[in-house]
Amino acid sequence: MTTTTVHDNLIPPSERAEPGPSYLSDGHTVASWLLTKDHKRIAILYLVSITFMFMLGGFFAFMMRLELLTPQGDLLTSDTYNKFFTMHGLIMVFFFLIPSIPATLGNFLLPLMIGAKDLAFPRINLLSWYLYIIGAGFGLFVVLFGGVDTGWTFYTPFSTQYSNTWVIPITLAAFIVGFSSILTGLNFVVTTHKMRAPGMTWFRLPLFVWSMYATSLVMMLATPVLGITLMLLIIERTLRVGIFDPALGGDPILFQHMFWFYSHPAVYIMILPGMGVISEVIAAFSRKRIYGYRFVAFSSLAIAFLGFLVWAHHLLVAGISIYSAMIFSFLSFLVAIPSAVKVFNWTATLYRGSISLDTPMLYALGFLGFFLVGGLTGLFLAALGLDVHVHDTYFVIAHFHYIMVGGAVMAYFAGLHFWWPKISGRLYPEFWGRLAAMVTFVGFNLTFFPQFVLGYLGMPRRYHAYVPEFQVLNVMSTAGATVLGVGYALPLFYLLWSLKYGKIAGKNPWEAVGLEWETSSPPPTQNFTETPVVTWEAYQRNLPEVLIERG
Amino acid sequence: MSEVELHGEHQHPHLQHHFEDLGQQHVTVTLGMWAFLATEILFFGGFFFAYTLYRHAYPEAWTIGAHHNNITLGTINTAVLICSSLTMAMGVYFSQLGRRKPLVNSILATIFLGLVFVIIKGVEYAEHVREGFFPGVLFTYSGPEARHVELFMVFYFGMTALHALHMLVGFGILTWLVIRAQQGWYSAEYYGPVEVVGLYWHFVDIVWIFLFPLLYLINRHG
Question: For position A543, what pLDDT does the model report?
Fold first, then answer.
């Protein structure tokens, strides 16, 4: 040994010890899972929970698409349809998308990536999961005992005075799960500040950590406002006082302002983690350092910051002053800048990279296309004049699904496949993975691209019937949803299959760089045998010793 | 022997497994509390925002509502709460010196003053309900601006109840702190928990410092 290797820095040869048991084999009782304080096990708890909620939300979506196969409202009554789109939205937003990447991959990877033994507050991390479960319990109660029909936005005064469904339990569910989100964000922020290994400076952090950090700030600072807004809603509905009801002296626009002050930043809670995953996957499968590291890192913070200043673009046609509408329209355009910075930098990373089209990369490339379409159509909606025309049409539906499903969910699957060998210690079957990625890509486009056209032609959202001229496009969309459903179901089967029959992964099957790949797969409970000391830059690949070691 | 010296700090009974040393644990826990308080500011902030908007819209109703409040009890309560912050600060000071008995007494005094505050608040609540100022079906005030005075009372009850809830949570944490302190957990080397509970308590105090003028002192001059 003439050179100092990465591993010499990580673990001095004299102290190289056998790692302890992997986190999966460290206890097999139910209590060892339900009372665990290990961030990796909590990530698995979340993974199981959100997968269940994803299937439930997907069921409601599929029923809606089935109803829309024909122009008449024949499968679901209008009341049932109202409940289905409400519960689809609530479950997907609050119980799947918001926790999806942060609570599973973030929880699992953040300490590994910065060389820590755990998150800063392991018990609070477990508490977050229990709060999620309690919230989900309220949600399931509502689903099972009659549903709710306010739309996921709970607009007043319908939700406070008129709706005859389970409004209070479902707002409580959102309130409680909000605290789960706040505590997760707080934990991640403090962990990133205080738990980094020696030598892991801010600008050596993987970009996934930067995006988790930006996400966590938004979770911490936006979610409490939703909490208080929902409290006010509950007070108004219980006491019949006029906080938001104009008949009693309240202001319904105030509810919309306060709701979107959280719920617009929440869109960035959903997409920023996805951007972090994409940065990791593109760097790994292009065999290059990410292009413009600092720009990508700061663009996450810029998106988080600007995300707080654009909420009223949801109210452009709600009767706010034209001057404030112009300002919010302008600010909304600004979000495009850091988003474009990211897309350009990812593309530049691909340029002359040594690209391999493994499953995570296929998902990531799909993300790039979807995010581009979703982002650009967002600019249409931010434009005042055009928004009047397409507001509350399927154009909006298609736009935000391109971001939240095409973007966030694709990134979630990219990350799940990329880190699956690390999480489970096994490789999934690559053929089936690529197939699922391509089926998802085709199914998604077939589902949502026709909706842009439908919306532009004027089909309004939230109705169970429509004029017959729209049927062809709706049939295409429903057919696409079926394909998409297959694309989402496939990983469930082969990932579970791989747990038992998959090839042993080894610690770094992708030859990726990052501390998480320096420990065994699955990692030991303590993550690292010795606290690593970082002496290299993020994504630095030209370490000769790494090449030697990997033959 | 050298092993013990080398890892002496690792053996501190209150060092959690995932921290390198007590120093890291201390700064982490402190940052955690500050971050939590930031979320609390946003939480209360939503209430203050809506309050401000409606105070601007219905200034007369806000004056009527504030004049209805019992300014004597409110003032006494403000003084009581500031005193409880003083005893809490003394607790932090004694914990840093590792003086067990004064620490326990300071926290007990903090709990006592907090209880006095909550009891006085309860007396005020009972008065409001008796006089028909509780929003909803119990609201019987029918003077000028009745609807909007009711809205003021929504904010009054909502904000003070949220504040009182924070105090109740505080009692739980302080009680836990007393038990730990009596067992001799805290020393000059390890006093982080006392300090962060102190931060929390001062935050709850400061919220009241804002609530008192906003809910009691509107147009009291002249």
Answer: 57
DSSP, collapsed to helix, strand or coil, labels residue A504 as strand
The phi and psi torsions of A35 (rounded to 5 degrees) equal -115, 15
CA dihedral defined by A84, A87, A89, A91, rounded to 10 degrees? -140
Residue in B closest to A111 by C-alpha: B18
Model pLDDT for residues B93-140, shown as the tens digit of each residue: 999 999 999 999 999 999 999 999 999 999 999 999 999 999 999 999
Q: Do B35 and A120 touch (CB under 8 A)?
A: no
Question: A143, A86 in Cβ contact below 8 A?
Answer: no
Considering only the beta carbons, identify the residue of B16, B42, B58 that sits closest to A224: B42
The answer for A 67-86 residues in CB contact with B (under 8 A) is: none
Hey, is A460 helix, strand or coil? strand
Q: State the SS3 of chain B.
A: CHHHHHCCHHHCCCCCCCCCCHHHHHHHHHHHHHHHHHHHHHHHHHHHHHHHHHHHHCHHHHHHHHHHCCHHHHHHHHHHHHHHHHHHHHHHHHHHHCCHHHHHHHHHHHHHHHHHHHHHHHHHHHHHHHCCCCCCCCCCCCCCCHHHHHHHHHHHHHHHHHHHHHHHHHHHHHHHHHHHHHCCCCCCCCCHHHHHHHHHHHHHHHHHHHHHHHHHCCCCCC
CA of A383 to nearest chain B CA: how many angstroms apart?
A: 28
Cβ contact B35–A229 (<8 Å): no
B50 contacts A225? CB cut-off 8 A: no
A243/B151 CB distance under 8 A: yes
- Sole residue written with tokens 């994504």: A539
- Cα(A339)–Cα(A296) distance, integer angstroms: 9
Instruction: Please name the residue of chain B whose CA is at the shortest distance from the CA of residue A224.
Output: B43
Residues with Cβ within 8 Å of residue A107, at least 6 apart in sequence: A39, A40, A42, A43, A46, A119, A125, A184
Residue B3 has pLDDT above 50, yes or no: no
- Give the CA radius of gyration of chain B: 22
Q: Of A435, A476, A549, A551, nearest to A7 (Cα)?
A: A549
Q: Are A470 and A71 in contact (CB under 8 A)?
A: yes
* Per-residue confidence (pLDDT) for residue B5, from 0 to 100: 41
Q: Are A324 and A256 in contact (CB under 8 A)?
A: no
Structure tokens at B80: 């009581």
Query: Residue B176 has what pLDDT?
Result: 97
Phi then psi dihedrals of residue B143, to 5 deg: -75, -160
- ipTM computed for the complex: 0.92
pTM of the model: 0.93
Nearest 10 degrees: Cα torsion A168, A91, A332, A304: 100
The shares of helix, strand and coil residues in chain A, as percent rounded to the nearest 5, are: 70, 0, 30
Instruction: State the 10-residue block means of pLDDT for chain A, 551 residues long.
Output: 40 52 91 95 97 97 97 94 97 97 97 96 97 97 95 94 94 97 98 96 97 97 96 94 90 96 96 97 95 96 96 92 94 96 97 95 97 96 92 96 96 98 96 98 97 96 95 97 97 96 94 93 92 90 54 40
Mutation pick from A36, A188, A194 vs chain B, by most beta carbons of B within 10 Å, is A194
> With an 8 Å Cβ cutoff, is A225 touching chain B?
yes
pLDDT digits (tens, 9 = 90+) for A17-62: 566 789 999 889 999 999 999 999 999 999 999 999 999 999 999 9
Among A186, A227, A238, the residue with its CB nearest the CB of B43 is A227
pLDDT the model gives residue A542 = 64
Q: Is A1 helix (H, G, I), strand (E, B) or coil?
A: coil
In the numeric block, the tokens 């665990």 are attached to A36
Chain A residues lying within 8 Å of B150, measured CB to CB: 241-242
